[in-house]
Design goal:
Blueprint (H helix, E strand, L loop, with lengths): L19 H13 L5 E5 L7 H18 L2 E5 L3 H7 L3 E5 L2 E6 L1 H6 L4 H8 L6
Parallel strand pairs: 1-2
Antiparallel strand pairs: 3-4
């Protein structure tokens, strides 16, 4: 529990006593306790507000560096993809249309679909 930022004395709490971010940390702890080689994260931060998303993503990256976890991160949020990924695969209608490093994909997209996804990322002016 401590490795995912939860207090050990919270062990006997009920689910309704935790925030959304704390519940996500519980899910991470439950997955990692088995010491898997691959962790699949399917829209794992989509329901969290931006500051809590950042905390959870930073936690996942810290755990990846410390324990050498491999994540398969499934998301529609390309800013999350850019932050988390070492390799990216862009899928359209269930087919991989492009793959590469984050720099390959974001700096030199090869398909109109990928360009459309990148252009849809909100930007602050």
């Amino acid at each position: 529990m401590e490795q995912v930022g939860l207090q050990p004395n919270w062990y006997n709490r009920y689910p309704h006593e935790f925030s959304g971010g704390q519940r996500q940390r519980i899910c991470i702890a439950r997955a990692l306790i088995l010491q898997p080689e691959l962790v699949i994260c399917d829209e794992s931060v989509s329901a969290l507000d931006v500051s809590v998303q950042a905390q959870v993503l930073n936690l996942l990256n810290d755990l990846k560096r410390h324990y050498y976890y491999t994540y398969l991160f499934i998301t529609h949020d390309l800013s999350v993809v850019h932050y988390m990924a070492d390799r990216i695969m862009v899928m359209q209608q269930g087919r991989i249309v492009e793959s590469g490093t984050p720099d390959d994909i974001f700096l030199n997209p090869q398909t109109d679909y990928t360009r459309t996804l990148i252009n849809a990322i909100p930007r602050i002016n």
